[in-house]
Structures are given as structure tokens and as C-alpha cells.
Amino acid sequence: MFYPAHFRPGKDGHIEIQMVPEHNRNTAEISSARLCSVQLAKTGYLAGLLHDCGKQTAAYKGYLEKIMAGQPAQRGSVIHAHAAARFFLEQFHTAGAFESYRDMIAELLAFATGAHHGLFDCVDEHHRLGFARRLQWDDSAYQEAASAFLEQCAGMEELEALFDQAERELAPIFGRINARD
Fold first, then answer.
1. CA torsion sign, 46 to 51 to 55 to 57?
2. What is the pTM of this model?
3. Vertex 163 angle, CA 90 and 109, to 5°
4. How high is the pLDDT of residue 115?
């Protein structure tokens, strides 16, 4: 199954559909270019590549198809942004002994991708970690999205290489921050 990311009316009256792999690669390129001047090109590429992996579900596809057909659909009724956050934490967060900046980088990328629509509280009004509930995202939808992403967009080998490059970009920044303490 292939998954649409966006659509728009074409000049000839037909609907133009951009699929998730193309959208994510385009976003990755734009993110990389915009962060190049601060030496975070690979970090930007990785975040852009994963940001919409949660759109690769039957539920999101159905949601977009309803809208394309002119049927009513409640905006935001199918959440997709949490999948990338969960993916970063499950795949790259060690949850063990802190030996590098790897955990901080996984958390930073999880927050960035999880908040890419701006509706994301790190801490709620009761000072509880608001981020934690995002990780309780529907497990079957997450598994569907992650599996489709790895099959259609990018494999783990590429993602691991990009994460390692992001770590090399971000480690000196974290080192400078720590040196100020």
C-alpha cells in the first residue's frame, strides 16, 4: 500500500497527490539546506526525513481520501506527528548508562518531530511530562507506520548512518554548553 502525504488541485482539474516518501525526502532536503549554515545539515535531513512517517497508515490515507472526495473530515482527527517521536526514542535512545550525547540527541529529535505542527506541550499545566503521553500513541498504528516507513522511505542502515552524523554535528554544541557549567 502506498500512502499520500498531501494533495492539491492540479491545473487540469485533477488532484495532484504527493506520496509520503517524496514529501519526506523533499522536506529532508529543505531542512538540510536551512540548517547547513549552522553545521546541522545531517541533523536537519534526518528530522525532515522522519517527520511525517506517521502518515503511513490506513487511517491517515482514509482521512485524506475523504477530504479529496469532498466529504467532511475533522482536521486533526488522525494524529501522525507522534510516530517520528516514538521512532527516535525506540530506535536511538539507549535508556541505559549515559556514555555520550546520543540520548539527548534522540530526545531533541523526538521533540522536534513530535512538535512539527506546533501543538505539543513538553510539560502540562500540572508540571507533568506532556511528552510522555505522546508516546502512548496507538501501537498498531505506530507499527504500521514504522514498518511502511522503513520499507518505502528509508531503511535502518541509512537512518543509523544519519543519526551518527547528527551526533557528530551536535556533540560539539552540547560539549560547549556543558563547558559553561
1. positive
2. 0.88
3. 60
4. 72
